[in-house]
Amino acid sequence: MRFPHRTGPIAIVLPLLLSMSLLLMLATSAWCDDTTIVTSPRDTRQYAAFALPNRLKVLVISDPETDKAACALDVFVGSNANPDNRPGLAHFLEHMLFLGTREYPEPDAFQTFIAKHAGEQNAYTGFAHTNYHFDVDREHLRAALERFGQFFIAPLFSKVYVDRERSAVDAEFHTKKKNDAWRGLAAMKQAMNPRHPLSRFTIGNLATLSDGADGEGALRASLVAFYRRYYSANLMAVVVLGKEPVDVLRRWVREVFSAVPDFDAKPPPITEPLFLPAQLPSRIVWQPVQEQRALELSFPVPALKPHYKTSPLHYVAHIIGHEGEGSLLSLLKARGWAEALSAGVGFDYSDDATFDVSITLTEKGIRNTDAITALVFQAIRRIGREGIREWLYQELSRLADMDFLFQENLPPMDYAKHLANALHEYPLSDVLRGPFALDRYDAALIRRYLLALTPDNALVMVSDPDLEGTIDAPLSQAPWFGTRYRRESIAPDVLRAWREAPITPRITIPAPNPFIPEDLALEPVPKPGRPLGITHSRVGPKDKPARILHAPGLAAWFQQDTTYRMPRADFYFSIRSPVANDTPRHAVMTALFTALARDRLAEFSYPAAMAGLDYALYPHMRGLSTRISGYHDKQGLLLARIVETLRQPEFTPERFRLAKQKLTRKLRNTREEPPYRQAFRELRGLLLRPHWAPETRVEALAPVTLPDLHAFVPELFGRLSLVALSHGNLRREKAQVAMVPLQKLIRDALPTRVPHGTITKLTKGVPRLRSITLEHNDSVALVYFQGPRRGFRELAAMELLEQILKAPFFHQLRTERELGYIVFAGAYPFLQIPGLLFLVQSPDTHPADLTGHIRQFLASGSDLLDNMREAEFAGHKSALITRILAREETMKVRSERYWEEIDQGIKGFDSRERKADAVRAITRAEIREIYRTRIRGEDKRQLILHAVGNREEYQARDEKNAVDAGSVIIRDVARFKREQPAFPQKDDS
């Protein structure tokens, strides 16, 4: 897997890329008189950076084409500053800033304003950063900034909400207690230096966030003290993106943020190393919740921040994490020991960093972890002996330059969030380019970092679901998360073998990449006069995909991109077969076939991915689909190999056995997914036809053999239809040539129309209740209302109800009633059948009681709609229309919409415009009537889903008495679906 810290794979490109200095545009920065910000020449946005008198760093970005404005403020402090007696305080403070300020005291004031103006808002607390961010309709940026700025000037820290929000943080902690990423980290912390802040608990819960023995008000006092110590302007960086000129944005920032106090704060000093010398080498074997087996080697390394222009470990990770021929992963897979491998920087802070190698193991691999570790060290030693090569570094560097030149736009909020963080991490001149910089080949520096990747400096982490059965000694339990683990020393003879084992010749240095694009020229625009920079229609493209092939069983669409002007293209094709998903057995064999095809393609396709050309192959309700996306130049090579693999499957017994094990494990692990996801999956199972539950598919998969699969493939391809889309930097003639390999897939097939599945049509009036039991302490209540028919007006009505109800639902059930961390209300369509659902996940409330709270809210919703003024209703409509017609930031986003419209059979490629028109037509009286009849009245088609947590007191509760007598309990899903009618199948021909 490619190095996760970088955005770019490797390539050699046209001569225009050989000297980025000729291409890079310099935007004058007002931050320092002699500082310039390096930007891509294709970036048409205007940047200005400066510092306020209070030393708050500012970057403003003017984008006249944007339809969303955004802002992010990053505080250069996080959980690293938690007091010893207050774990989670920094995270708790992040929650509290949203709950009222002196100027806007209502606890939901900011969230309500943002929601009413087509926006989203969120925040996160990291180890060294706390980041607050939002987006909003572009016309309301100034007012949003005024409200947002008060977070950092005059927050209330209301005593009432200090007490209430503790429950939200505690509920968030409970959602993570069975998350294996958090549980593994908890085990890893047991090997860290206990004096290092990273070794401590960071989320917080009711125990750590209480007044305790210090007396009433002690928690609030700690909160205010932390705020006044660290939330200082000199530790803050703000990024604002809007449609206005930079001078206007600059003025707004000064008006809003100049009042942020400057305490001359200092980030908390870290004087302790992450690991003490005596703690390494060491091994921790821990027990995950899910059935997953993995080996991770983590090495503390010198600080990386000073070397961002060289990125020595990016080079090392590229070689160790390579997945092509001759790679470490290729050898491990050949031995049946591993399924996946990634390498890269793990923790990366100012004073500490780690380099991690993570390997997903097979059942055979978990029994050979010492041998696998030895091969990792052989790969590292191979780099040291013969792998530090300037040509390979330059290959990485040139592709990084290309990725910077042709980078696609991020959504405004994501871009602002990233840059606010980057202002603390990079010099101002490189705030945009820093993550792409690979400017200085330094063999000595690479070698110096390699010296840290030794057996004596390694923490070896092994996750083993069968741990209790493989280790006789008693297990320890990590605090907070309860992870069961055993920490052990590594025998001297094992360490010696890791240091000295001869390097196998089967691990080699990657060869030059054959997928490096050579043609990056942009095709001429059919209509003259279009600018070469990125432009965006605020409604959508005037030109739409055209059908270019009408062969029997093959429908193909094409559109040349004239908007984004990148040397990229997206190519999709879907093989629809009537037997792909008609039975559980066929469904799992279709999934096995696609998994094995991906496995066969892995070594060939990996260099393509590294050269900016990705693909995906996946099963779905009607068959299987492929997506190829990236630089257009070598797409034909990849497509030809994919088609050849599908046409001529050659699967070995060993690869079949491993693929079957992996699929079985994946299906079994669904029972350990977060509770709200299990509730959503159960809802899909009740409504979609066909739909096979994970346990049904596990049962169907068990007897399947390789001969069974080989016999199924001709049946899968015997009757089919094929649909394709080509969109991007291609002419029509080239797109037609690209379709030629697809015709080989249908050459011997009988053209067959394969309709969509159907949706259960809920009966009016009588709510249906389905209850499932979880292997998790949290519980979920989900209440779903189904629309009566397909249609854009019906979809628009449900989305408008979401727009109106989402924020008050969240505020009432999470903030006011403290029911849980995950609280959601939203439109939820199935195959264009509209729906509206309300969901709450709670650590301490039974689903029947949660349903009661949801019903109380729904009852109050009638008053909310009745009392809503026409101007407020018009504002909600405007916000929804803005969301629907939001700018498609990248060509891939637009391609995905086209593909979805083709799949859904939506003629005209104008679903967004038609839905927006439907929203415009809805009146306040109509939405009130829809709510009165379909949500509250006799016309409602309602389904209630209870996911009951694994708590002893819940199991004794009689579900019949937990809900009102009017609900009909669904005990047999198959019988329920047989007895319920279905909506007519959608004609997408």
TrEMBL record:
<dbReference type="GO" id="GO:0005737">
    <property type="term" value="C:cytoplasm"/>
</dbReference>
<keyword id="KW-0732">Signal</keyword>
<dbReference type="InterPro" id="IPR032632">
    <property type="entry name" value="Peptidase_M16_M"/>
</dbReference>
<dbReference type="InterPro" id="IPR001431">
    <property type="entry name" value="Pept_M16_Zn_BS"/>
</dbReference>
<dbReference type="InterPro" id="IPR054734">
    <property type="entry name" value="PqqF-like_C_4"/>
</dbReference>
<dbReference type="InterPro" id="IPR050626">
    <property type="entry name" value="Peptidase_M16"/>
</dbReference>
<keyword id="KW-0479">Metal-binding</keyword>
<dbReference type="Pfam" id="PF00675">
    <property type="entry name" value="Peptidase_M16"/>
</dbReference>
<feature type="domain" description="Peptidase M16 middle/third">
    <location>
        <begin position="404"/>
        <end position="699"/>
    </location>
</feature>
<keyword id="KW-0862">Zinc</keyword>
<dbReference type="Pfam" id="PF22456">
    <property type="entry name" value="PqqF-like_C_4"/>
</dbReference>
<feature type="domain" description="Coenzyme PQQ synthesis protein F-like C-terminal lobe">
    <location>
        <begin position="800"/>
        <end position="899"/>
    </location>
</feature>
<comment type="similarity">
    <text>Belongs to the peptidase M16 family.</text>
</comment>
<keyword id="KW-0378">Hydrolase</keyword>
<dbReference type="GO" id="GO:0004222">
    <property type="term" value="F:metalloendopeptidase activity"/>
</dbReference>
<comment type="function">
    <text>Endopeptidase that degrades small peptides of less than 7 kDa, such as glucagon and insulin.</text>
</comment>
<dbReference type="InterPro" id="IPR011765">
    <property type="entry name" value="Pept_M16_N"/>
</dbReference>
<feature type="domain" description="Peptidase M16 C-terminal">
    <location>
        <begin position="220"/>
        <end position="395"/>
    </location>
</feature>
<dbReference type="Pfam" id="PF16187">
    <property type="entry name" value="Peptidase_M16_M"/>
</dbReference>
<protein>
    <recommendedName>
        <fullName>Protease 3</fullName>
        <ecNumber>3.4.24.55</ecNumber>
    </recommendedName>
</protein>
<dbReference type="Pfam" id="PF05193">
    <property type="entry name" value="Peptidase_M16_C"/>
</dbReference>
<feature type="signal peptide">
    <location>
        <begin position="1"/>
        <end position="32"/>
    </location>
</feature>
<dbReference type="GO" id="GO:0046872">
    <property type="term" value="F:metal ion binding"/>
</dbReference>
<keyword id="KW-0645">Protease</keyword>
<dbReference type="InterPro" id="IPR011249">
    <property type="entry name" value="Metalloenz_LuxS/M16"/>
</dbReference>
<dbReference type="InterPro" id="IPR007863">
    <property type="entry name" value="Peptidase_M16_C"/>
</dbReference>
<dbReference type="GO" id="GO:0006508">
    <property type="term" value="P:proteolysis"/>
</dbReference>
<feature type="domain" description="Peptidase M16 N-terminal">
    <location>
        <begin position="57"/>
        <end position="181"/>
    </location>
</feature>
<keyword id="KW-0482">Metalloprotease</keyword>
